[in-house]
């Protein structure tokens, strides 16, 4: 998993969170880079409400482009 210390998380601008109203606390889903965005999508899928899932998906899509987050670039069995 991508590492982000509490100090680093607190230093992030609210614009780097999928749910900025909760930033930097729990349930805010930080997305400073594509790896964190992929992790956020996984957590939102597992624990988030439909509104949170949509917010995380939209934030990742806006910031990193459609289909660029959460997709594996390697082919299995190749």
What does this structure look like?
The longest helix has 15 residues, at 50-64. Helices cover 45% and strands 0% of the residues. The chain has a domain at 15-64. Residues 72-78 have low confidence and may be disordered. It contains three helices and no strands. It is mainly α. It has helices at residues 6-11, 34-47, 50-64.
Features:
78 residues, 3 helices, 0% strand, mainly alpha, disordered C terminus, single chain
Topology (elements, then pairings):
Layout: H1 6-11, H2 34-47, H3 50-64
Q: Which H/E pattern describes the elements?
A: HHH
Q: How many β-strands, per DSSP?
A: 0
- Cα-atom Rg, whole angstroms? 13 Å
Mean of residue pLDDT values: 87
Distance between the termini: 25 Å
- Percent range of helical residues: 40-55%
| Unreliable segments of 5+ consecutive residues | 72-78
Instruction: Characterize the largest beta sheet: strand count, sense, and whether it forms a barrel.
Output: none
Strand content: under 5%
Q: In terms of structural class, how would the helical and strand content be classed?
A: mainly alpha
In DSSP terms (H or I, runs of 4 or more residues), the helix count works out at 3
Task: Tell the overall outline.
Answer: globular
């Amino acid at each position: 998993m991508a590492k982000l210390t509490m100090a680093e998380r607190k230093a992030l601008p609210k614009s780097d969170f999928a749910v900025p109203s909760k930033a930097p606390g729990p349930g805010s889903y930080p997305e400073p880079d594509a790896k964190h965005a992929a992790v956020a999508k996984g957590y939102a899928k597992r624990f988030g409400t439909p509104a949170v899932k949509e917010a995380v998906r939209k934030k990742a899509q806006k910031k990193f482009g459609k289909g660029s987050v959460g997709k594996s670039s390697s082919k299995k069995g190749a």
